[in-house]
């Protein structure tokens, strides 16, 4: 069956190239709609960090005027910044979302994981994350990971197949061609999906500025009591800091990433608006993970190892 | 890998960090792929692009400095730029690249997504993957060695995947004393080959990735070269597609039906425009059903549009309550479009298990997945010699046990990295766009229904493989026009 031409399309030729941010947005929306079309039970990981906030914003745009068709899940280390939890709860109420909380504290109480001597709970998130994926039978899990973040992530796919143990095997990755994402998986397996793969930290901030997206206040400058450990400004809290030999100081800081309080450092900053932050990030000589994540400093392959075990 | 450079700060010219936020609002995004091996200096070239555009930050650089020192290769204060692109542990240990890695750098004018693909012969599938989304490919040659078998292989894959722009990077010019005649003879030889395989737009740059000549900054050691540096070319190469000259294609991803108090009866079709332009009022046909309707709205979260073009993600509303679902494609009514259930095309085999004639597979094209039967593999492209071996087109279905997916005895099988011409019988008709004219909708995947493995990537219709075929394929012998012409 061939339909024959009767009239060719006519129009004045003019440039039709998207700007970088429009191209990235369109790609991310396309990925989210593919997941909605191909999977039964998708979930969006929502930490209250800027990348997951941008993902949620994109999900609202992708399905408008329908509500976001995904459950959101927060993997709660128990060492949270209160401002971030407030933001999370407000977003859930505002957008009518269904929230699942996977709790590291519960996993410790059940004996599924054991608290580490250094008090950091970031590496402990993998077990409650995988348990929640199994319990809720989630088959697609949106993460805010970006390929520019870290070198093991540079080889990550948009659609990343995980086995029953949540493991990432870089040698088993499916080739990803054009925009044809293969999400087929066996029972028990699931697919991690990274719609922000091709965004850089600056792209995320420029998009936040353009779209006028609200963020938790700790992303902007504020006064805070902090202490210095391993070259990072950490905030005191129930997680165990500061130690006796560590001195609290009042500093003007902000956060570049939001994670477990025990390993997320603040940077000294007076940036009070998105534009200030963009100017600061643009001239920064440190990556956001290098500047603020103790967990990535452990070894040259720290992220690769955690990814293999099923981390975000 | 002994390539080193001093770790002084790159020059301020043309770097992202020096530009204020507002200047970025209008820059576009260029996707490119690099082809070449470590021996050609590919990792060093990418390292140089990242380093000189200030895309490498201090902590990444100090990690590389530590790694350089740990390997004892370089003196203090120098850094092996190739290590910037090191990835997985196995790769570092074996000194090879296993997989496609994606790198990001930008200037005030353009942002770049670079697919860094390994160049070894066994990694054809990675090159095919990287080239599939690339608008530009950098083919790298060592000035001392010139155009090698490997260079032709990379150019062939670039042509096969229809990458519209090519840069021939003649690297290591410092090792041939920046000799113009060396550069010219390599560029001429490559141009002749590019012509033969139909690479449309080739631009050659003499450079030294190690020393930085003509990568970002213009070299004073090539006074005879007045063209742009590599980065200048990447920034300026016109890749604007004229969406108005393309035919509209809109694969439907999901049907949006809110059923909320605010939008009780809303029904829209969400997707990303694969090619062309759509306007409110356009007459469209739903394929494969052939039903027609009119576009009554182009919706986005930010408000309705009168017109939208590729590759925008939008939601279309139609005048009539026609049956439209995921997998359907909206096309302009009256414009040519072929719908069928016999597919001829070229595939690159991507799986460890070989092809089996008669195998039942899944075909993924656009947003549609249909069952398919691999009826015929009738030619294979030898990527090293760029010759096509034609296998007789007799349907050997009956001679092969179709259930034996582990068969090593299949006489004409495609193995990992092989490129061949196939015929597939589809369980239901689909839109069959030629890849040559529809890069987005003419590409397909073959998937194993049992475990979801991606078996092959394919291109509908004639490709480079057909161009290189010395005689008409056997299946053409029964074409009507041949008989009618009395041949």
UniProtKB/TrEMBL annotation, chain B:
Residues 27-244 form the Tr-type G domain. Its EC number is 2.7.7.4. Keywords: ATP-binding, GTP-binding, Nucleotide-binding, Nucleotidyltransferase, Transferase. CDD domains: CysN_ATPS (cd04166), CysN_NodQ_II (cd03695), CysN_NoDQ_III (cd04095). Residues 466-487 are annotated as: Disordered. InterPro entries: CysN_GTP-bd, CysN_II, CysN_NoDQ_III, EFTu-like_2, G_TR_CS, GTP-eEF1A_C, P-loop_NTPase, SO4_adenylTrfase_lsu. GO terms for molecular function: ATP binding; GTP binding; GTPase activity; sulfate adenylyltransferase (ATP) activity. One of its GO terms (biological process) is sulfur compound metabolic process. The keyword GTP-binding applies. Pfam families: GTP-eEF1A_C, GTP_EFTU, GTP_EFTU_D2. The keyword tRNA processing does not apply. This is sulfate adenylyltransferase.
């Amino acid at each position: 069956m061939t339909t024959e031409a009767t009239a060719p399309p006519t129009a004045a030729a003019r440039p039709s190239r998207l700007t970088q941010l429009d191209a990235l947005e369109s790609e991310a929306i396309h990925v989210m709609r593919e997941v909605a079309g191909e999977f039964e039970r998708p979930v969006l990981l929502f930490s209250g960090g800027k990348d997951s906030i941008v993902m949620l914003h994109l999900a609202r745009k992708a399905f408008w005027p329908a509500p976001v068709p995904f459950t959101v899940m927060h993997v709660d280390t128990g060492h949270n910044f209160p401002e971030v939890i407030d933001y999370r709860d407000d977003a859930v109420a505002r957008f009518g979302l269904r929230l699942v909380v996977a709790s590291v504290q519960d996993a410790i109480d059940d004996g599924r994981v054991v608290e580490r001597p250094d008090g950091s709970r970031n590496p402990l998130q993998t077990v409650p994350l995988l348990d929640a994926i199994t319990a809720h039978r989630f088959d697609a899990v949106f993460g805010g990971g970006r390929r520019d973040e870290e070198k093991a992530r540079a080889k990550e796919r948009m659609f990343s197949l995980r086995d029953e143990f949540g493991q990432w095997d870089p040698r088993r990755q499916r080739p990803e061609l054009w925009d044809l994402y293969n999400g087929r998986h066996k029972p028990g397996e699931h697919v991690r999906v990274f719609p922000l793969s091709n965004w850089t930290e600056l792209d995320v901030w420029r998009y936040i500025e353009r779209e006028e997206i609200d963020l938790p206040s700790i992303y902007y400058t504020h006064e805070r009591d902090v202490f210095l450990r391993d070259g990072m400004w950490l905030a005191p809290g129930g997680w165990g800091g500061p130690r006796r030999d560590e001195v609290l100081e009042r500093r003007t800081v902000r956060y570049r990433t939001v994670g477990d309080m025990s390993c997320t450092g603040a940077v000294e900053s007076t940036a009070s608006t998105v534009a200030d932050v963009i100017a600061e990030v643009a001239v920064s000589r440190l990556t956001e993970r290098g500047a603020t994540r103790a967990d990535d400093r452990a070894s040259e392959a720290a992220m690769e190892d955690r990814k293999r075990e099923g981390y975000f | 890998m002994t390539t080193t450079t001093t770790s002084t700060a790159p020059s301020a010219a043309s770097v992202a960090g020096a530009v204020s936020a507002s200047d970025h609002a209008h820059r576009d995004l260029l996707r490119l792929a690099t082809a070449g091996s470590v021996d050609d200096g590919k990792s060093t070239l990418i390292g140089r692009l990242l380093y000189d555009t200030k895309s490498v930050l201090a902590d990444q650089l100090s990690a590389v400095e530590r790694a350089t020192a740990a390997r004892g290769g370089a003196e203090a204060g120098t850094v092996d730029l190739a290590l910037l692109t090191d990835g997985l542990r196995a790769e570092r240990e074996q000194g090879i690249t296993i997989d496609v890695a994606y790198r990001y750098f930008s200037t005030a004018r353009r942002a770049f997504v670079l697919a860094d693909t390994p160049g070894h012969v066994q990694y054809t599938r990675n090159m095919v993957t990287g080239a599939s989304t690339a608008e530009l490919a950098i083919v790298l040659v060592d000035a001392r060695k010139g155009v090698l078998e490997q260079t032709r292989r990379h150019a062939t894959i670039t042509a096969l995947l229809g990458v519209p722009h090519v840069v021939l990077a003649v690297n290591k010019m410092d090792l041939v004393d920046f000799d113009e005649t060396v550069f010219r003879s390599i560029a001429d030889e490559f141009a002749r080959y590019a012509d033969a395989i139909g690479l449309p737009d080739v631009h050659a740059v003499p450079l030294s990735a190690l020393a930085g000549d003509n990568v970002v900054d213009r070299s004073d050691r090539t006074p005879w070269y007045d063209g742009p540096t590599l980065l200048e070319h990447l920034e300026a190469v016109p890749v604007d597609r004229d969406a108005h000259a393309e035919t509209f294609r809109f694969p439907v991803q999901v049907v949006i039906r809110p059923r909320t108090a605010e939008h009780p009866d809303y029904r829209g079709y969400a997707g990303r425009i694969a090619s062309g332009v759509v306007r409110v009022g356009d007459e469209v046909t739903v394929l494969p059903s052939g039903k027609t309707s009119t576009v009554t709205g182009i919706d986005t979260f930010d408000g309705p549009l009168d017109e939208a073009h590729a590759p925008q993600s939008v939601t279309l509303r139609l005048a009539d309550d026609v049956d439209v679902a995921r997998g359907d494609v909206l096309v302009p009514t009256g414009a040519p479009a072929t719908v069928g259930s016999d597919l001829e095309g070229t595939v690159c085999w991507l799986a460890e298990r070989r092809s089996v004639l008669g195998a039942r597979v899944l075909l993924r094209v656009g947003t549609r997945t249909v069952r398919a039967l691999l009826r015929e593999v009738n030619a294979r492209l030898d990527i090293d010699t760029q010759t096509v071996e034609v296998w007789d087109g007799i349907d050997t279905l009956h001679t092969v046990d179709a259930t034996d997916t582990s068969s090593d005895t299949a006489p004409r099988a495609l193995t990992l990295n092989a490129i061949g011409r196939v015929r597939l019988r589809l369980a239901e008709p689909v839109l069959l766009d030629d890849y040559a004219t529809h890069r987005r909708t003419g590409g397909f995947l073959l998937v194993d229904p049992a475990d979801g493995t991606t078996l092959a990537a394919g291109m509908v219709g004639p490709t480079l493989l057909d161009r290189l075929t010395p005689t008409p394929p056997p299946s053409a012998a029964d074409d009507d026009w041949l008989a009618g012409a009395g041949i």
